[in-house]
Amino acid sequence: MSDKTERTGVVIVGAGFTGLSAAIELKRAGVDFVLVEARDRVGGRVEAVRNGLGERIDSGGQFLCEDMPQLMELARVRAKTFVETYVEGDFITHPAMSAPRAERTYHASMAIRERMNRIEPNDPAIEGLTVADWLEGQNDTADAKAAFRSMIEGLWCLALEKVPLWYLIDNDRRITNEVPELQYSLRETMQSVADDLARDFGGRVRLGEPVTRIEYGPPGVRVVSSNGVIEARAVLVAVPPATAAKLDFTPVLPAALDRALGAWESGAVIKILVRYPRPFWRERDLSGMVMWRDLPGLFACDASKDP
Prior knowledge:
The protein has helices at residues 17-28, 69-77, 99-117, 131-136, 142-156, 165-172, 190-201, 241-244, 255-261; strands spanning 5-7, 10-13, 33-36, 48-50, 56-58, 82-84, 90-94, 184-186, 205-206, 211-217, 220-225, 228-232, 234-237, 248-250, 286-292, 299-300. The protein is an alpha/beta fold.
């Protein structure tokens, strides 16, 4: 670690979309800031890579919808090209079931989701419950429960046994469900939005600079990174809870906050892009969407960028 010490108004830890959004607001307000990121890129869970054809494709989070107005606006301002996800036609399931049965099962799983969202996230009766605990006590069919599990695990990339019920409700209630969550992707990739924002901030963005310790004191805050110390009036920790929990805080965090950081962990997902000469499923009036029932969370969709 370097002995270098610098000063700024606010330190933002983490250059995912949360950190980048905070930087937008601070810049707009005329507040001096520094944004530090442990990785060698911005975007966090959003990432793009080159495939074997040299095309830049999303390897991380890529979908957005009208339920995300701030992100939609960012993409529009940056003149990104919206590609609407193809959803026309029936979806299929594995193991296979008839289209009418699959449709009934889907609506039954959505009914479970709506019933769950009617619970208050701060209801003492659900304290300590996981989504799996709650689901087990519901009087729904095995098909509906399996579809609900597959849907939620596909979205959150975590087993239901690891998702706190209150956390899912608190997040899910912000979604209207009036539009599909896979409504759009961006032809230029979602990562391109993050890259554009970072360029706007110039030298205020520091990559490859992991933060190890945050010290609070009467004058303000000291953020210790691999590149030295940054003294500031305030710090904004814009990393996932599981990552924030690994930081060394001085003084230690209040017990309730420390427990809260440990209540949620980030999920993991493997994405595979398969390209076919033609979308043959459309010729059969299929949407290209597949949901696996025996491997919850496994999901496929038509992410074509053709018109």
